[in-house]
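Our platform keeps sequence and structure together, in a single record for each protein. Such a record has a labelled line for the sequence and another for the backbone structure tokens. This encoding replaces a full spatial description with a residue-level series of whole-number codes. Below, we set out a record of this kind in full and without editing:
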Amino acid sequence: MDLYLAAGIVMLLAWGGLTIATDAPGVVHLLLTAGVFVIIWRIVVRDTPNGPRSGKS
């Protein structure tokens, strides 16, 4: 597992815990935004081929 992917999952778990356990001020919801962004970003980057492709299959 990628370190960034794990960090994104930790951010989502922290957001969920803080949302349930506290009054959840607006700043807490930045964890949701950042966590989802990092997870999607790492999935897209992982599936991107490295380097330019030649015309051959």
